[in-house]
Amino acid sequence: MTDEPDLPAPEPEDGPGDGDEEERRYPSTIGGAFYLVILAVCGAGIAIVASGDWRLGVRVLAVALMVAAGLRLVLPSRDAGMLAVRHRAIDVTVLAALGGLIYFLASSIPEQPG
Protein backbone atom coordinates (compact mmCIF):
# COMPACT_ATOMS: atom_id res chain seq x y z
CA MET A 1 0.00 0.00 0.00
CA THR A 2 0.97 3.58 -0.62
CA ASP A 3 1.10 6.35 1.93
CA GLU A 4 -1.06 8.67 -0.21
CA PRO A 5 -4.62 9.25 1.01
CA ASP A 6 -7.49 8.22 -1.22
CA LEU A 7 -8.69 11.31 -3.09
CA PRO A 8 -12.10 11.55 -4.70
CA ALA A 9 -12.14 11.44 -8.48
CA PRO A 10 -12.22 14.90 -10.07
CA GLU A 11 -15.56 16.09 -11.35
CA PRO A 12 -15.77 16.04 -15.14
CA GLU A 13 -15.62 19.50 -16.64
CA ASP A 14 -18.22 20.78 -19.03
CA GLY A 15 -16.85 20.52 -22.52
CA PRO A 16 -18.00 20.37 -26.07
CA GLY A 17 -20.53 17.68 -26.73
CA ASP A 18 -22.20 17.91 -23.33
CA GLY A 19 -25.42 19.05 -25.00
CA ASP A 20 -25.80 22.04 -22.68
CA GLU A 21 -24.46 24.67 -25.06
CA GLU A 22 -25.94 26.03 -28.24
CA GLU A 23 -24.57 24.50 -31.42
CA ARG A 24 -22.12 26.77 -33.22
CA ARG A 25 -23.35 28.48 -36.37
CA TYR A 26 -21.06 28.83 -39.37
CA PRO A 27 -20.27 31.59 -40.03
CA SER A 28 -20.78 32.75 -36.48
CA THR A 29 -21.24 36.46 -37.27
CA ILE A 30 -23.24 38.38 -39.86
CA GLY A 31 -19.96 39.91 -41.04
CA GLY A 32 -18.67 36.41 -41.72
CA ALA A 33 -21.67 35.73 -43.93
CA PHE A 34 -21.15 39.03 -45.77
CA TYR A 35 -17.47 38.16 -46.14
CA LEU A 36 -18.40 34.92 -47.89
CA VAL A 37 -20.77 36.80 -50.22
CA ILE A 38 -18.04 39.36 -51.04
CA LEU A 39 -15.62 36.50 -51.70
CA ALA A 40 -18.13 34.85 -54.05
CA VAL A 41 -18.67 38.12 -55.94
CA CYS A 42 -14.89 38.53 -56.28
CA GLY A 43 -14.70 34.99 -57.64
CA ALA A 44 -17.42 35.86 -60.15
CA GLY A 45 -15.45 38.95 -61.17
CA ILE A 46 -12.34 36.86 -61.74
CA ALA A 47 -14.40 34.38 -63.79
CA ILE A 48 -15.72 37.27 -65.92
CA VAL A 49 -12.15 38.47 -66.47
CA ALA A 50 -11.09 34.96 -67.48
CA SER A 51 -14.00 34.72 -69.91
CA GLY A 52 -12.70 37.72 -71.83
CA ASP A 53 -14.57 40.83 -70.63
CA TRP A 54 -11.81 42.15 -68.40
CA ARG A 55 -13.28 45.61 -67.92
CA LEU A 56 -16.58 44.29 -66.54
CA GLY A 57 -14.82 41.73 -64.33
CA VAL A 58 -12.51 44.34 -62.83
CA ARG A 59 -15.48 46.62 -62.18
CA VAL A 60 -17.26 43.77 -60.38
CA LEU A 61 -14.17 43.30 -58.18
CA ALA A 62 -14.04 47.04 -57.47
CA VAL A 63 -17.71 47.22 -56.52
CA ALA A 64 -17.28 44.20 -54.23
CA LEU A 65 -14.43 45.99 -52.42
CA MET A 66 -16.50 49.16 -52.04
CA VAL A 67 -19.47 47.19 -50.70
CA ALA A 68 -17.11 45.50 -48.22
CA ALA A 69 -15.95 48.97 -47.12
CA GLY A 70 -19.55 50.06 -46.59
CA LEU A 71 -20.37 46.92 -44.61
CA ARG A 72 -17.28 47.37 -42.44
CA LEU A 73 -18.34 50.95 -41.79
CA VAL A 74 -21.85 50.10 -40.57
CA LEU A 75 -21.33 46.75 -38.80
CA PRO A 76 -20.27 46.79 -35.15
CA SER A 77 -16.79 45.39 -34.60
CA ARG A 78 -18.12 42.33 -32.76
CA ASP A 79 -20.30 41.45 -35.76
CA ALA A 80 -17.86 42.35 -38.55
CA GLY A 81 -16.25 38.90 -38.67
CA MET A 82 -13.51 38.59 -41.27
CA LEU A 83 -14.25 42.07 -42.60
CA ALA A 84 -12.51 43.42 -39.48
CA VAL A 85 -8.77 43.17 -39.93
CA ARG A 86 -7.45 46.32 -38.32
CA HIS A 87 -9.13 49.40 -36.92
CA ARG A 88 -12.39 50.33 -38.58
CA ALA A 89 -11.02 53.55 -40.12
CA ILE A 90 -8.07 51.72 -41.68
CA ASP A 91 -10.23 48.88 -43.02
CA VAL A 92 -12.78 51.25 -44.56
CA THR A 93 -10.12 53.56 -46.02
CA VAL A 94 -8.10 50.76 -47.61
CA LEU A 95 -11.09 48.89 -49.03
CA ALA A 96 -12.78 52.02 -50.39
CA ALA A 97 -9.55 53.44 -51.83
CA LEU A 98 -8.63 50.18 -53.56
CA GLY A 99 -12.16 49.72 -54.89
CA GLY A 100 -12.36 53.29 -56.14
CA LEU A 101 -8.92 53.21 -57.74
CA ILE A 102 -9.54 49.89 -59.47
CA TYR A 103 -12.89 51.12 -60.79
CA PHE A 104 -11.31 54.38 -62.01
CA LEU A 105 -8.47 52.54 -63.75
CA ALA A 106 -10.84 50.10 -65.44
CA SER A 107 -12.94 53.00 -66.68
CA SER A 108 -10.07 55.23 -67.80
CA ILE A 109 -8.06 52.77 -69.89
CA PRO A 110 -9.04 53.40 -73.50
CA GLU A 111 -10.35 50.60 -75.70
CA GLN A 112 -7.60 49.11 -77.83
CA PRO A 113 -8.33 48.43 -81.47
CA GLY A 114 -8.65 44.70 -81.93
What can you tell me about this protein's structure?
By secondary structure, the protein is mainly alpha-helical. The chain has a domain at 30-108. It is built from three helices and no strands. The protein has helices spanning 30-51, 54-74, 88-108. The model has no long low-confidence stretch (mean pLDDT 84).
User: How many distinct beta strands?
Assistant: 0
Percent helix range: 55-70%
Catalogue the unreliable spans: none
Tally of alpha and pi helices: 3
Ends distance: 94 Å
Radius of gyration: 24 Å
Helical/strand content category: mainly alpha
Run of helices and strands: HHH
- Net shape: elongated
Q: In percent, how much strand structure appears in the residues?
A: under 5%
- How would a textbook summarize the main sheet? none
Mean pLDDT: 84
Q: Secondary-structure map with pairings?
A:
Blueprint (H helix, E strand, L loop, with lengths): L29 H22 L2 H21 L13 H21 L6
Helix pairs in contact: 1-2, 2-3
Key words describing this protein structure:
114 residues, mainly alpha, elongated
Quick summary:
This protein is mainly α and 114 residues long. Helix content is 56%, strand content 0%.
